[in-house]
Amino acid sequence: MGSNFRSVSTSTRIVNGKSTTTKKIKENGTERIEIEEDGVLKSVLINGKKLNTGSREKILNILF
Fold first, then answer.
1. Residue 59 has pLDDT above 70, yes or no
2. Residue 38 pLDDT exceeds 60
3. In the chain, which end has fewer C-beta atoms inside a 10 angstrom radius, N or C?
4. How many other C-beta atoms can be found within 10 angstroms of the C-beta atom of residue 34?
């Protein structure tokens, strides 16, 4: 049986009043990086390839 592995790392920076959160998720050999600015999802990379960002719901439908 295969084992499931998940690692999540989150960092937040505030520069000139703008909050940028980067979440790095490694799961079953896949790396996903999500970048949010002031709570709005701006970018998603899966294994280094950028997904076109639309609404958060659209991206989550792609991922799950």
1. no
2. yes
3. N
4. 21
- Would you give the end-to-end CA distance of the chain in angstroms? 22
Which residues, in sequence order, are CB contacts of 1 under 8 Å at separation 6+?
none
25 pLDDT band (50/70/90 cuts)?
very high
Strand arrangement, sheet containing 30-37? 6-15, 18-27, 30-37, 40-46, 49-51
pLDDT of 31 higher than 60: yes
Q: Return the pLDDT at 2.
A: 60
Sequence spans of domains, the chain: 6-63
Give me the torsion for CA of 20, 52, 44, 26, rounded to 10°: 180
Residue 3 is encoded by which pair of tokens? 């084992």
